[in-house]
Structures are given as structure tokens and as C-alpha cells.
Design brief:
The protein has 19 helices and no strands. By secondary structure, the chain is mostly helical. The chain has a domain at 110-369. Helix 6 (112-124) packs across helix 8 (149-161). The chain is globular and about 60 Å long. The N and C termini lie far apart (89 Å).
Length: 388
Amino acid sequence: MINKNYMKYLHALYGFLFAAACFCLNDIAFAAQERFDPSTGKKDATQLIKELMSLTQQGVNNQQQEKRYEETEQKIISCGKEAIPAIKENLSSTNELAKVHLVRILSLIPGNETTQILVQLACEESDTKIANEALSSIGNRPIDLSLSTAQIDFLTRKIDKANSIHAASAANILSKSKMDDKGALTAPIVTRFRREIEGASNDMAQVPGSYVSPRVFRLNQYLRVFPNLGTNGIGQLKLLVDNEKNDDVKKWLILALGMCGDSTVAEAIRDIVQNDSDPYIQCVSIPAYARSAKEAAIPVLEPLLKDNFKSEYDKLPGGKPVYPIRSMAKQALKRLKGNKGAQGNSVSNTQSSATNDSEIGDESRQATIGTNGIGSEQSAVTNKTIEK
């Protein structure tokens, strides 16, 4: 005969197990539902941004806090577009430093929606520091949108009045936006470019992370804009070249023509690539030559893959030297030959260490030659530490 107490024990045990099973199944179902719920990303991003704001206010004072900050930032970026509403809500924060961080995060989320927000901030934000952060962070993002008349007027004034870095960023945005007549942009951009040629010198502060001289860095900010103008810029540039008395100014205007794709200046640019006394000018003239001479540039550029000039301005992690001419030639050949890359060596688009010969083995590294990331061969350093 079975003990009654034992039966009660079994009955209670089965009841407990049944309830636990139901609870687990319900929990699994809820987790699955939450995993596929589109609103989950927004909730996660909101919580993560609150944590990031808290960390920003506390200050990142040690390695542990820095690691936590970076991890939180990456989690927000991984939310993608789901993070945008939460970022927009917090952009009204009175904490300027927090807003700068949010703009930076926004710039790392791809898509036309984030580009549009950054353009609006650049043109309409009353806080100059935030506006300039947005302006600089647009970089090599595609700009698949039309600008308002007010935005066009604002950015055109910026080309004339702003410092060198921000003026070039404004020119970049205008040149890549949807416009019926980009020819109208040539005059203000060329006018500012000419001012920079005459005024820029190597006495300026070195740009952090740049592998070229300060003067060439700043002038290259403007060179990288001209491919976006295309044939619209050729007529006005040719007229200026024909009437220019200053040889140095004429040289840079010829490079601008090459960036527009004008084949008539190919031989002149080839001479700059091979014989200019400034190796940093040789370096930034390579894309202009490739665009001007097209496939005919290949036999001229291939020997440069073994060029031995080392940058004096910066080194790679571990103290390895940078070979900027070699690297720029590789990028230009990659574009001319297609995705196969120069001599079969593909170039990574991620920010990683250099290739075998301590070249700048990716566009993020190569970006330090140019400006805030414009042009396939001429990406650039970010401008967070430059001329605020």
C-alpha cells in the first residue's frame, strides 16, 4: 500500500514541474517575441544612450571606464537605424560634450537618413561646435539628397568665411549633393582653393595622424572635391590656368583639372608625379594623374609600388614607417584596374594595421593623406582635433 504522504509529495512535485515547464516555455516564447520585435532595438538603444550619457558626465578617467565607454558606443552603433530616434531625442541635451559624442555615433551609422540629420545639424544647429562636428563628420558618406536654398546659401558662405578644414567640408557637401547646375559651385570653390594655395604653408601645425606635410594636407582638402564637379569645373579652371602667372598656383590648378578628369593635362601631371621636388605633392598628384590619363597611367604608376620614400610626419603602430607614394599608387591602380587591386593585392576598407611593406594598407589609413574622407583614393583623417 502506497503511503498517502508520499502520494501528496508526488502530486506536489508534478504540479511544480508542470508549472516550471509552463513558465520556461512562456519565457522562451517571450524571448523569441522580443528578439524579433522591431521596437526592441529602439528600447536597447535608449537604455544604452542613457548609459553613455552617464559615462560622459562622469568623465572617462581610466582604462576600465574607457573600455566600458567604447563597448557601449559599439553596441549603440550595432543597433543601426533603430538607434536614430533615441539619438535625436538626446541631441537636445544641454551637455555639449555629450552632443558631440552623439553626433560622432550618428556619423558611424550608414544611410541617407543619418546623412540628412548631419546636414541639418551642420547648417541649422546654433551651437557652432556641434554644427562643425556634424559638418566634418559627413566625410566620405554618399549624399543622395537635395539641399534647400537656405542650406546651399549657408554652405556657400562657409566656403568663403570658415577656416580651411570646415570650408573644404562645406565644399564637399555641396559638390556631392543633388543639384541641377554644379557649374555654379566652381567659382566659390576655386576662389577659396586659390586663397589656400597662396596662404597655406608648412609653418602651420601638423595635422594629428597625417602622413603628409601640413600644407599639402590642407590643399588636398580641396583637390578631393573636384571629381564631384566633373566636367562642370573644367572650363573655368582652364581659363584660370591660361591666365595664371604664379607657377605654384598654376600647378595646383592643373591638378584640380586632372581631378575633374581633363585628359589634356595628363602629361603635365605626369611630370609632377615623376619629378616634383616635394614628395608629398608627388603623392597627392597621383589620383589626379590616374583620373586624367586613365588606363595610360598604369605603366607609370606600377613602378611606384616599390617607391622608398618614407613619411617624416607619422608612423604606423609599432613604429613602422609609412610609404605614402607607394600607398597612393596602390589605391589609384586599384581603381584603374577594378576590384582585383594593384598587382593582385587587395586593399582592406577597414581600419587595420598596414600591409606587408608598412604601406598605408587601407583607406582609413590613407585618409590621413587627404581630408575627411572624400574620394576613393583620398580618404582623410577625421577633423575632431583640427581647427575647432
